[in-house]
Design a protein that fits this description.
With about 150 residues, the protein is mostly helical. The chain has one domain (about 1-145). It is about 70% helix and about 5% strand. It has a two-stranded antiparallel sheet. The termini are close together.
């Protein structure tokens, strides 16, 4: 349970950093508590998508990964980010908390184009870097046993 909470917190921080560095990723947290709850919910969806769907796609893309020497991982990470944006906007989470909160990646959803794919690839690289750094910083908690 603590592992899931840490993963959600790391994903939330990584999503906020990616939204602040990548101009086509719109995630606009303000100082309202509803916005931060939305970010936590989006991070939870992102963690669930990465936990259950990403390993299946990695196995299916393994032959392509050998040919491209692992570059297909960027495409898989971008697809996970787009899937998260689609799931969050598909579900009516916004109606529950905040109707003007928007999570879009390059205009997706509803517009899927090269802007969305490019923004998703760049944002997934930023998210991977931030997640790796935070995981390395939080590594001592596994040694202690928390």
């Amino acid at each position: 349970m603590i592992e899931l909470l840490v993963k959600v917190a790391v994903n939330a921080v990584a999503l906020v950093v990616a939204a602040s560095f990548v101009p086509d990723v719109s995630l606009n947290p303000r100082d309202k508590i509803e916005d931060w709850v939305m970010i936590i919910l989006i991070a939870l969806v992102f963690a669930i998508v990465n936990t259950y769907i990403k390993p299946i796609l990695k196995i299916l893309a393994m032959p392509i990964g050998f040919i491209t020497m692992g570059l297909v991982a960027f495409v898989i990470n971008a697809a996970m980010l787009l899937a998260t944006a689609w799931l969050v906007n598909l579900s009516q989470i916004q109606d529950l908390l905040n109707k003007d909160f928007v999570f879009k990646v390059g205009g997706y959803p509803p517009n899927m184009g090269y802007e969305a794919i490019g923004a998703a690839v760049v944002a997934s690289i930023v998210i991977s870097i931030v997640s790796t750094v935070l995981s390395l910083v939080l590594m001592p908690r596994k040694v202690v046993g928390l």
